[in-house]
Amino acid sequence: LTSNDIPLPDGKHIHLQADNKIAGYKYLQVNYKSMVNWRQCKDLLQCNPEFFGSPQYDCVMVQTNNQPFFARLIFMFGCSIGETNLSLALIHPYDVRIAKPRSSPEFISVRSIIQGAVLASDPGRPGQFM
């Protein structure tokens, strides 16, 4: 979260407790400016285990302080810690150069999601995407 300039509650790492309220989300609307026509656009992203009878976990482009990277949404949720309301996502990040899934998921702020992305599996390289 700190890499996205989102302060941690009381400057400390987040440790969820049994009394923290968490609300899961299956849908996210991301607004962005198109690099093609410079107009405002929106992506409607799904993170849903049962979207019309099939799982739908969209891919996204995530902004960091270094460079953007691609990831697949796993779970989105909002939580309140003290007086701070956070909207977070559990993602499965992909390595930037080869779009191969990394070994472990990460938590990010949904504010760091730039836009949706389409990743297709590379038939010539199993387990990699383009």
Provide keyphrases for this structure.
six-stranded antiparallel sheet, 130 residues, mainly beta, three-stranded antiparallel sheet, single chain, globular
Oligomeric assembly: single chain
Q: pLDDT under 50 segments (min length 5)?
A: none
User: What fraction strand?
Assistant: over 45%
The Cα radius of gyration reads 16 Å
What is the residue-averaged pLDDT?
A: 80
Major sheet characteristics: 6 strands, antiparallel
- SSE ordering: EEEEEEEEE
By DSSP, the count of extended strands is 9
Q: What would the principal axes of the Cα set say about the shape?
A: globular
Class from secondary-structure proportions = mainly beta
* Cα separation of the termini: 27 Å
Q: Count every helix, treating DSSP H or I runs of 4 or more residues as helices.
A: 0
Question: Helicity range of the residues?
Answer: under 10%
Q: Helices, strands, pairings?
A:
Blueprint: E1 22-25, E2 27-33, E3 40-51, E4 54-57, E5 59-62, E6 69-81, E7 84-93, E8 106-109, E9 113-117
Antiparallel strand pairs: 1-6, 2-3, 3-4, 5-6, 5-9, 6-7, 7-8
